[in-house]
Design brief:
- This protein is α/β, with parallel strands linked by helices.
- The chain has a single domain, classed as Rossmann fold, CATH 3.40.50.12780.
């Protein structure tokens, strides 16, 4: 099993073909270079708040480009994530990244994520972080369906899904647990946000 981490594979594409479109959502798009810079900047904000390697974050954001940036930022900061769709939450849900710190993870911290990330100033030149993450480290935790236990997915498992550079874009429904986003970005192609299929009663 590979020891390569998901974000390192994406960083390679940002370095070799940074102008290529990484994620697209309607009229909005980010290149690999822009995605990488934005995620680096957000990862540094998380670490400044106490986020460290091995920490787990709950990301509550609507599907879209900003969610992709937040997911990548958590991996770059050395942690893992669980995604909560704010549209499925009862009552108002915080927009951003929440995590616990302290000797018993008793202190909850939340970082609001601006729904309109602006790639200017220091964000536009934010270098990669020297975070030491292993392929065996957990990247995401997928909730089980209908009472099934949660699944812990390490970087190596996701990295093993890469197939080389694809000649076409990959549709991404915005579900952070589908892993389509990572398959597209690890291959150096574009993840295009699409509306999830709607069930129609017969």
């Amino acid at each position: 099993m590979t020891t390569t981490t998901v974000h390192r594979l994406i960083e390679r594409h940002a370095a070799l073909n940074g102008a290529a479109t990484a994620v697209a959502d309607g009229d909005r798009a980010l290149s690999y270079r822009e995605l990488n810079y934005a995620a680096n900047a957000l990862a540094r904000r998380l670490m400044a708040r106490g986020f460290r390697r091995g920490a787990h974050a709950t990301i509550c954001m609507r599907s879209g480009i900003d969610l992709a940036v937040a997911l990548l930022a958590v991996l770059k900061a050395g942690g893992s994530y669980t995604w909560r769709d704010p549209e499925q939450e009862e009552g108002p849900a915080p927009n951003g990244v929440s995590f616990s710190i302290g000797p018993e993870r008793s202190e909850e911290r939340h970082l609001h994520v601006d729904p309109s990330l602006v790639l200017t100033g220091p964000v536009a030149n934010s270098p990669n972080l020297p975070v030491v993450t292993r392929g065996s480290d957990i990247a995401c935790i997928l909730h089980g369906v209908d009472g099934a236990p949660a699944v812990l997915v390490p970087h190596a498992t996701i990295a093993a899904l890469r197939t080389g550079r694809l000649d076409r874009s990959v549709p991404w429904t915005g579900d952070a647990g589908a892993l389509d986003l990572w398959m597209a970005l690890m291959a150096g192609t574009t993840a295009v946000l699409v509306e999830p299929p709607t069930a129609v009663a017969a």
